[in-house]
Amino acid sequence: MQAREGKVYCCVILDTYSRRVVGWSIDSSPTGALVTNALGMAIDSRLDKSVEPGTIIHSDQGVQFGPWAFTKRAKDSGLLASMGSIGDCYDNSMIEAFWSRMQVELLDRKKWNTRLELANAIFEYLEIWHNRKRRHSQLRWLTPIEFERNRIITVA
Length: 156
Hints:
Layout: E1 2-3, E2 6-7, E3 9-14, E4 21-27, H1 32-45, E5 55-59, H2 68-76, E6 79-83, H3 93-107, H4 115-133, H5 144-149
Parallel strand pairs: 5-6
Antiparallel strand pairs: 1-2, 3-4
Helix pairs in contact: 1-2
């Protein structure tokens, strides 16, 4: 993402059940810290939920997803890190759709002068618009937070 002042990189972690952004991080470079911070936020935001040991988290093939700190943080939280195959569009379809919507709904609408302005706009998009106001067809036209709140748990 580009501001007149320079690039801004954003890492987002989606919960595939509710399409909720559960972790995110913004930085001026695409480092391992960018993805580790997003993963930490996702883990912390789900502490009140019961996450089954062995839950799989899927990441891209980017170099920032390979560092020891990222895989250690995932393993220490009981998560299994999975990288998809190179060039497989099905692995990343949900997050690619998210980035496409963000491009149209936010990034194509305005030019930002500073990285801080863009980072603030991204924060507002993720936390206010996407999670609390944007309705999703796959969620019966509920927002991600409404969908999680209204989930029906069945026990077999």
